[in-house]
Amino acid sequence: MKKNKVLPLTETTYYILSALLEPAHGYLIIQNIEELSNDTVRMAAGTMYGTLENLLKLKYIQLINNEDKRRKVYQITETGKNILNQQYERYLHIVKVSEEHLVR
């Protein structure tokens, strides 16, 4: 696997990208992250919105049109899915190495 300079993703970035596989607004993203992490990750709004801005600049996510003008709705892009998949492959490798080398 070719090394990507943006990897590894932070836990925050990984969960936000995962949460945006379906379009969502800010509060729903926070709820999705809590569900995805089995309530082990509590995302503060400031952390989330700062990360969303960075992900928009990187073109890993995009704003999508919605009827409620009070809420911004975000969705992962193909580039974001690619990065998320690369991180997933990194995690699989880490698990494989751990299974092979850790004493149980």
SSE map:
Blueprint (H helix, E strand, L loop, with lengths): L10 H9 L4 E2 H11 L8 H14 L2 E4 L8 E4 L1 H24 L3
Antiparallel strand pairs: 1-3, 2-3
Helix pairs in contact: 1-2
Commentary on this structure:
The chain is mainly alpha-helical and 104 residues long. It has one domain (11-101): Arc Repressor Mutant, subunit A (Orthogonal Bundle), CATH 1.10.10.10. The chain is 56% helix and 10% strand. It contains 4 helices and 3 strands; from the N terminus they run H-E-H-H-E-E-H. It has helices at 11-19, 26-36, 45-58, 78-101, and strands at 24-25, 61-64, 73-76. Strands 1-3-2 form a 3-stranded antiparallel beta sheet. A hairpin with an 8-residue loop joins strand 2 (61-64) and strand 3. Helix 1 crosses helix 2. The longest helix has 24 residues, at 78-101. The radius of gyration is 15 Å and the shape is globular. The two termini are 28 Å apart. The model has no long low-confidence stretch (mean pLDDT 93).
Quick description:
By secondary structure, this protein is mainly alpha-helical.
Question: What would the keywords be for this entry?
Answer:
3 strands, mainly alpha, single chain, Arc Repressor Mutant, subunit A, 104 residues, three-stranded antiparallel sheet
Query: What proportion of the residues form beta strands (DSSP E)?
Result: 5-15%
Order of helices and strands: HEHHEEH
Question: What structural category characterises the helix and strand content?
Answer: mainly alpha
Distance between the termini: 28 Å
Mean pLDDT rating: 93
The CATH architecture term is Orthogonal Bundle
Number of domains: 1
Query: What's the shape?
Result: globular
Q: What's the CATH C level?
A: Mainly Alpha
Radius of gyration: 15 Å
**Helix content percent band:** 55-70%
Number of helices: 4
The CATH homologous superfamily is termed Winged helix-like DNA-binding domain superfamily/Winged helix DNA-binding domain
- Do you know the CATH topology? Arc Repressor Mutant, subunit A
Trace the largest sheet across and list its strands: 1-3-2
